[in-house]
């Protein structure tokens, strides 16, 4: 039985991970400042379903003593806490930096000074690759496609941080990697791509599958920024947690490594295709309009997941159709909470 510390543990990934590790007999402590919409609902749910879960309210920007104390007690530290929206980072880059870059440094320092330093998994982002303007993109019907990358973007793609969000997450990404090289910490960087699933209260700026699905269920219109042909590889949250497990189980190989973790070429959707899929799933019309492209928005991003497959034995198993159906069932069963956290 291992001791897990999940920083940002009341977010949708956090509570899904917590449930998984509690079900498999581990002990779990969550740290969160509950600033993001939906976190209080998620915390109430996990505490009701699993009374043994432990919660500590803290802010990774300022509560170093709390981080130090909790990191000293755990075997595995999942660092999920973040400011997650590009648009928010453009409006308030200082707060974005303090949460994503400084907050991550605080977490790393807590792990480094622990008597027995834990394994640290860091949730990075595909935004560290920037706009990839040098990569040829073609249009195929209602979607964009890479001209020469049939397996998606590998970890060898040059880093090119766009937007304050890309800079803050990218800086944290490199700090986590370097703490393995310089201090010998067992760290793994996971560059995630479009994670979705139950307990996600997405908004217009982040978590677009959840946002579109909420709008469909509540009869609200959505705005598509750009032309709707943007393509992303999408990954259901249970597959993400399987990647966490694979990283931990293979820590002798994964330590100090970086992995792209997404749905890969077999699990891609354009925004227009997502609208069509949601309309079929909900048997209702999803009214949508178009607006200008947003800063740092890639026309296409598809994770190349070959390294994770080769080194960790991991691959996605849940198709977008299956995942969206599971997410829709959860949202429909929790429509009151979904509606209460809805903000246009």
Describe this structure in words.
Helix content is 42%, strand content 19%. It is α/β, with parallel strands linked by helices and 344 residues long. It has one domain (3-340): Rossmann fold. It has a 7-stranded parallel sheet with strand order 3-2-1-4-5-8-13, with helices on both faces. The chain is globular, with a radius of gyration of 19 Å. The termini are far apart. 49% of the residues are buried. The mean pLDDT is 93.
In short:
The protein is an alpha/beta fold. Helices cover 42% and strands 19% of the residues.
CATH architecture: 3-Layer(aba) Sandwich
The first-level CATH class is given as: Alpha Beta
Helix and strand pattern: EHEHEHEHHEEEHEEHEEEHHEEHEEHHH
Count of discrete domains:
1
Q: Which structural class is indicated by helix and strand composition?
A: alpha/beta
Largest sheet: 7 strands, parallel
Strand order of the largest sheet: 3-2-1-4-5-8-13
Instruction: Provide the low-confidence segments as ranges.
Output: none
Radius of gyration using CA atoms only: 19 Å
Number of strands: 16
Q: What is the H level of CATH, i.e. the homologous superfamily?
A: NAD(P)-binding Rossmann-like Domain
Question: How would you sum up the global shape?
Answer: globular
Task: Provide the CATH topology.
Answer: Rossmann fold
Mean pLDDT: 93
